[in-house]
Amino acid sequence: MRPFKAINFLAAASVAAIGMSASLASAAELKIWHHTYPPAEEFIKQKAAEYSKLHPDVTFTFQSDPHGDYEVKLLAAIAAGEAPDLINVLDYLYPKFVSKGILAEANLPAMGVKTNEELEALYSPGALKGLMIDDKIYGLPEELNTFALFMNKEHFAEVGIDVTDKANWPKSWDDLFTMAKKVQKKDESGNFTRLGFNWVFGLDGFWYAMEYWPILNQYGCEVLDSAGKATINSPQCVAAFTDTWQRLVKDGIGGPDYATVNPVNALQDFSDGRQSMMMAGIWSPPLFGEDVKKNYVVAPIPQKDPANPKTLLYNYSMTVTQASKNQEEAWRFLRFLTSDGDGYLRHTGYVTGLKGWEKSEAAKDTIGADIFADQLQYGTYFWRSLTWNEEGKAIKDAIEQMMQGTSVQEALDQAAKQIDFVRSQN
Amino acid sequence: MDTTPAERYRRVFQSRKRLSLIFIAPALLYLAIFQLYPVLYAVYISFHKYDLMSPPVFTGLSNYIRLASDEQFLRSLWVTAFYVFWTIVPVIGLSFVLGGLLSTLGRSRSVWRFLLYLPSILPFVSVALVWKLMFNQRGPINDALNTAGMASIPWLTNGAYAPWALIFMSWWHATSYYTIIFLAGFLTLPRDCFEAARLDGAKLFPMIRHITLPLMRPTIALVVVLATVNGLKAFVFQQVLTDGGPANATQILTILIYKTAFSYLDMGRASTYSIVLFGCIMLLSLIQIWLISGRRDA
Amino acid sequence: MHRSQVERIAIILFIAIFAAIALFPILWMLAASFKTDKELLDGSLWDFGSAGISNYVKAFQARPFLRYLVNSLLAAGVSVLITLFLGVLAAYGFAKMRNRYSEMIWIAVLASIMIPIEAIVIPLFLQVHAFGWHDSYAGIVLPTALNAAGIFILRQAIQGIPNELLEAGRIDGASEFTILRRIVVPLLAPSIVVVAVLTFSLSWNNYLWPLIITSTDTLRTLPLGMAAFQMTLNTKYSEIMAVSTFGTIPMALLFIFLQRYFIDSAIGSGIK
Fold first, then answer.
1. Measured in whole angstroms, how far is the alpha carbon of residue C204 from the centre of its chain?
2. ∠A107-A112-A114 over CA atoms, to 5°?
3. What is the CA radius of gyration of chain A?
């Protein structure tokens, strides 16, 4: 209890410090860019209005773009020297952006803290690591995420398994696939009428990474070795993908051919009640159909070695651009904005990752908050690289190949070759 | 005034030459600013390494030399060639036939013409979105296959079928467009030729071979070139339906360029691909024009 | 032409099959716009949807599609005007007033038709930004307004005009401009219509350029608005179908209105 109170106090103190510096603020117009997600956009606008009341000299303008287009527009703006002040960036882009001098270093005093450690202490352990390059912090998490296993309890009840009981949760990947086979249904012509479990296919390299990263960690598979050479085709990696991805097709459990996914409605099958289990983030329930909303259960993801759990961590962060002429003010606002973890969770479903978030009122209303909080501890961020997008794409291509029948080794060999080719250009 | 007709003519002619420049100038200026300059800049960038965030770094011909070992690029060339070939050949054939048949109709022609042209009226994005849904695992096309007793086909998720899905969709879209062009061409053909030939007892196929085809040459040349250029410039369909997937099965060159520029931020490489594409388009067009319509001006 | 009844019926049947194929996806799209998401994929083909016009209503509430439509119309309209004005002038210049350089310059014009937009979009962006047209109507509309294919078509048409007509005008003392205005343009009417429709269509479908150059939502064009509708986690396909149907209307109206001129022109050609 005591550490919790101390953190609370520290947090409150820093926010108060921000409030007290109201009189010192100078006139500023902050441009905020965010990816399209109406609940988040609305929430940010609301907080901005609140902030403007405290700091009358600060005004805001907003812009949002859908996820895919967003990066393009941002880069075009930066190239033209029209960069906004506050931007919304995924963590894996930090190496590239920081190396090009796009992001501004965190202004600790403006945020009411003196050292990196103080800031990190406010958050769930390891949350800020992904936003740090060379021990400098460059952003704050807006949406700290990990994946968990969602299950449809009605489906399982039909086959006599009570998934509200922890004991029945799949501990290993074998458990998962066994359960999937039990609960799936096919019609006379062999078409699936209910999928037990399926991965999401057809989206970009980033989405695939969210799905396979926990597994790579669990199997000891590295994308790159310390010398920067591709090791995605190592025996551990081959085992990882064979056991958990190609298995779907080999065992007739699922695969890209059976998912309804058009590359834009990722979770449709589970949301419509046509799939019994899926891996997704804490943000997914608002998208479920009514039936599924009443019937889902959240469990930790399966582990290869339950004694040594490993999973993923990623965050959609907010940060300040180097080009901004109001960096101090921007950081101040950012701290103000993200300190309202409760508000974020309640209005947008985002977990800002502040310590103790799972004990807040809003979290109590969110099914599985405790599971997510627990999992966050074992999460690690994606591998870091200046050419992440191309490398992610190479692995995506390999997965799509192996799901269509190519041997896992061959597919991963090709990915390794492509990754080496890409990296050799730098 | 007391000038000879020759002098008057000369004066008029001379001023016309000057005037011609004035007439052409506005359009030329426009093209120079908004097309020529960017292309030159793209050529310039293809000799550099540039990621939009820091100044370009000169790398000479290395971008071009690397093309030989760039598997994504080589694969993309093949995918593009496959797509263009299978799109052009059937489409031109079918459009030719439909255009010809339409030209024989009387009053009912306008109705059929309207219906056949409908696919071209839809915005590309709409066409792509509708077909994406139609090719869905549980969409109408698979439904139809199922009722006919066949299994559902994984149109967009399997590399063997995805290219064909796009080709079929392009047939639907492109035929509509070129049928109308062929129709226009057919309508300009002199009727008397055919009347005379028929009266002389000529059979259909020889008539087509010796009369129709030669007369339709300019239109055919036009359509072949257009279809090739448009095929090579295709983008929206592939991006919306499969985004180049699965596993690059439908990653035509334009998609690769887009990804390289805007996702991988490698402007130098993207420009190199663009220049190659542009070169292919020009080369193919020139060859086709020369082959089909002789040395007549396009 | 005398054709037997059987021949006529066979021809019409053949055409009808393809007309049906052409029509099917469009009808499906229309029907789908009245269905709910579930009915779209799970329901049978021939069901009449239960969503009524709610998809349209929801789509319009979600985003200012009317505004997008106006933006698209504006861009297309300006493009048509610029192409016609500059195009007729240039086409006349190329067709009737040739000199040593005409051929060379003409090849350059032809080449510009072949440039893929992806190749020039970034340089164009940087350039347009330097003009200060970033995120403005000028920036969206002007750079891609001139349709070089239009010049091509107009030139073909003008070449078909007998020189005697022009000479007659010249001998009467008319200036080249007057000749253009009084003699050439009226004769060009069908081709002008063709170019207008093709340019409109090209502008209407423009996607990549407006995407890069706009930031403000209210400046977006219709294809951008439709694409923005596709979010990774929450695409409402039925609403997309409604918006797509809506996006078809302007072109359809234009086409119906100008059908007569458009098709029967002896020179129906162009680039998508």
1. 5
2. 70
3. 22
Residues near A117 by beta carbon (within 8 Å), at least 6 away in sequence? none
Compute the residue count for chain B: 298
Distances (CA, A) of A66 to C39, C196, C233, C244: 26, 33, 11, 18
Distances (CA, A) of B242 to A101, B85, B123, B254, C103: 34, 20, 18, 13, 42
Chain-chain contact of B129 with C241 (C-beta, under 8 angstroms): yes
* Domain-embedded: residue B34: no
Does the pLDDT value for residue C78 go beyond 90?
yes
**Which residue in chain C is spatially nearest to B178 when comparing CA positions?**
C269
Tell me the domains of chain A and their CATH numbers: 4-143+314-380 (3.40.190.10), 148-312+385-424 (3.40.190.10)
Residue A368 Rama label (left phi>0; alpha psi -120 to 50; beta): left
* CATH code, C136: 1.10.3720.10
Q: Which domain holds residue C254?
A: 63-271
- By C-alpha distance, the chain A residue nearest B55 is A79
- Is any Cβ of chain C less than 8 angstroms from the Cβ of B134? yes
Per-10-residue mean pLDDT of chain B, 298 residues long, equals: 64 64 86 90 91 84 92 94 94 92 81 85 85 84 85 87 94 90 80 71 73 82 85 86 88 91 86 91 84 58
To the nearest whole Å, the CA of A257 is away from the closest chain B CA by 5
**pLDDT for res A60:** 92
Q: For A26-49, write each residue's pLDDT tens digit.
A: 578 899 998 878 788 899 999 999
pTM above the 0.90 mark?
no
- Please indicate whether, in this complex, the C-beta atoms of A66 and C211 are within 8 angstroms of each other: no
For chain C, positions 217-256, list CB contacts with chain A under 8 A.
Answer: 217, 227-228, 230-235, 237
Print the SS3 string covering B65-129: HHHHHCHHHHHHHHHHHHHHHHHHHHHHHHHHHHHHHHHHCCCCHHHHHHHHHHHHHCCHHHHHH
Question: How distant, in Å, are the alpha carbons of A406, A424, B71, C232 from that of A397?
Answer: 11, 19, 13, 19
C-alpha B283/C-alpha B86 separation (Å) is 19
* Total of domains in chain C: 1
Number of folded domains that form chain B: 1
Distance between CA atoms of residues C189 and C67, nearest Å? 32
Residues on chain B bordering chain A, Cβ-to-Cβ distance under 8 angstroms: 49, 51-54, 66, 69-72, 132-133, 136-138, 146, 151-152, 154, 156-160, 242-243, 245-248, 259, 262-266, 269
Q: What's the CA gap between A324 and A330, in Å, rounded?
A: 8
Contact present, A378 and A366 (Cβ < 8 Å): no
Interchain CB distance below 8 Å, B246 and A421: no
Residue of chain C nearest B232, judged by CA positions: C116
pLDDT in tens, A107-121: 998 888 889 898 988
Domain span at residue B101 reads 69-297
The answer, for B187 touching chain C at a CB cutoff of 8 Å, is: yes
Average pLDDT score over residue span A9-25: 51
Contact residues, chain B, for C1 at CB < 8 Å: 104, 191, 194-195
Task: Name every residue whose Cβ is closer than 8 Å to that of residue A11 and which is 6 or more positions away in sequence.
Answer: A122, A339, A354
Q: For the domain that residue B286 is a member of, what is the CATH number?
A: 1.10.3720.10
> Is B43 inside any structural domain?
no
- ipTM rounded to 2 decimals: 0.82
Break chain B down into helix, strand, coil percent, rounded to 5: 75, 0, 25
Kindly state whether residue B41 falls inside one of the protein's structural domains.
no
pLDDT per residue over C26-45, tens digit each?
A: 888 888 888 877 677 666 66
On whether residue B273 sits in a domain, the answer given is yes
State the count of interchain CB pairs (< 8 A) between A and C.
57
Give me the pLDDT at residue A1, please.
40
Identify the helix (H) or strand (E) that includes residue B57: strand B57-58
Q: What are phi and psi of C108, to 5 degrees?
A: -65, -40
Structure tokens at A337: 């904005």
